[in-house]
Design goal:
The protein has helices at residues 2-17, 33-42, 54-58, 73-76; strands at 47-50, 66-67, 88-91. It is of the alpha/beta class. The protein has a domain at 27-91: 3-Layer(aba) Sandwich (Oxidized Rhodanese, domain 1), CATH 3.40.250.10. Helix 3 links the parallel strand 1 (47-50) and strand 2. Mean pLDDT is 75; it is low at 14-23.
Length: 96
């Protein structure tokens, strides 16, 4: 009986720890600057999210990027487009 109560809790923990991209092969990938430039030129709808702190963002960012710091992401994620076909590109300082 205790195991049956524990399984849903374990499932939630696993879903919170395992990155979402693991469930959608090819949906998440690293790109370099040249690839980003190409995507920006080709895509008419695109959201670029700067995942750095507000201070880092204010010191310089990709034009048009939206600042959603990692610690604020749960509160600000609702501002992302409802259309799940719009590409989202995240960038950070590499340390977060």
């Amino acid at each position: 009986m205790r195991i049956t109560r524990l399984l849903p809790v374990l499932a939630i923990i696993i879903l919170c720890i395992v990155p979402a991209g693991c469930f959608f092969p090819g949906a998440i990938e690293d790109i370099d600057v040249k690839q980003l430039e190409s995507i920006i030129q080709k895509e008419t709808k695109l959201v670029i999210i700067d995942n750095r702190t507000e201070f880092e963002y204010s010191s310089g960012h990709i034009p048009g990027a939206v600042n959603i710091p990692q610690q604020a992401f749960p509160m600000l994620a609702s501002f992302l487009p409802a259309d799940k076909h719009i590409p989202l590109i995240f960038y950070c300082s590499g340390s977060s």
